[in-house]
Amino acid sequence: MTIPPERAFFSPAWRDQITGLPNRQQFFADYKPMPGAQLVMLTLAEPKHFDELMRAIGHEYAEDFTRAGALRLREAIEPDTNIYHIGNLSFAFLLPHGAMPELLQNITDIFNKPLTCGRIPVSADIALGVADCQDSDASFVLRAGIAAARDCRDSGHDWARYNRKTDTAHQRGFLLLSHLNSAIQAHDQLCLHFQPKYALKTGEPTSAEALLRWRHPVFGNISPAEFVPLAETTAHIHPLTDWVLRNAVAQAGAWAAKNIRLNTAINISPRNLTRRGFANQVAKILNCYGVDPSSIELEFTEGVLVSNDVVVLEELRALRDTGIRIALDDFGTGFANFSYITHLPADIIKIDKSFIQRICTDERAAMVVRSLIELSHKLDYSVVAEGIETAKAYDLLKSWHCNEGQGFFMSPPLDAARFAKKLNLDSVPLPLVIS
Ligand code: C2E
Ligand code: MG
Ligand code: MG
To answer: For ligand 1, what atom is nearest to the CA of residue 301?
Structure first.
């Protein structure tokens, strides 16, 4: 799509103020589907890094970065090819005969030299996405270009083509997120399953881990491993955790009322702790159901420690002060290292199933788990092994004095009724959840 300059700039409103390039509206006005042609989308940097740049050198110089990026791109492509400034950090242009790998390589190479902001050299971190221009919908083509540029960034390759499969997965994620709020309100879409943990020495059940389930009216059962990380990227994680807390604590209250001695373990996202007042919120819910804090375990992943955020550490301490026990979930998969392990604000270490599943077949994994149990005990942590799938793994962990275990060998997660049957807790009425 080659547009004479007077046509490209016919309206000043359709020109970007910073770079002087035609903007997204102009792209929409100019775009016509062209089989065989391709759109190339270039993003100059991760938005997060651009924010850091603005914070360090201010808006004016950061604008220099965008301007310098546009000029650098101009050097690499034919003068009669229009470059559109699509968004703050993104530029697009069309290649009538398809994207040439040499051209894309050339663009990557010329951006290896830093751009200049004021007099400060700043490295760009470009991503290049390529999308076909067959579709008559200009906004779809732009979105496909942005999706491809995102894939390029995620893969670490020099450039990426639009991939319908990854795009569909993203779209599904977006759809799920937009339905999550109504699922929380709906009463019949979310429920908790419970998986027992056992004292390995005695074989007695010690606690029940509440695991969230979502039955979507169209998509069917959706794994928490899919929707919880999505919710964690948005503020939805707060009402979602509130729902889990209320329902799990209501169940804990129903067990306590029947004199059933069973702790309840609840998964909490590290993001929940970044909001001041979380410990208070938990205390209120426990109070509401008359549940003893010492019967509650809150499971966090190691990500909770990475930020070293003052609020997070204060909230963790406040939770522990009430008598709640803190477990570090999926231990060994994240970022925790030996400097953390000496002073974790936690009581329990849950060794991740990826280690436990290998202890019978991989001597080195067995050695790591055994040493980790010994080390944790010396540092006064109780140890839980998750993902016990065989009698052999159970026996090994028991011989290594691991305190508790959880896994399909003993029981998968079950709905409340089947859980009660499995543990012979029959006749516990369903809890009444107060909202
Ligand atoms: P998690 O907290 O580490 O939970 C253990 C996961 O391992 C569960 O998957 C459980 O079904 C599975 N599992 C248990 N025993 C075995 C075993 O022997 N073999 C194998 N292969 N798997 C086993 P699930 O229920 O799909 O949950 C996945 C993750 O989703 C959880 O990992 C947790 O991180 C998150 N999640 C679940 N419910 C909640 C929730 O209410 N809130 C939050 N924030 N996260 C949740
Ligand atoms: Mg857990
Ligand atoms: Mg886990």
So the answer is: 34
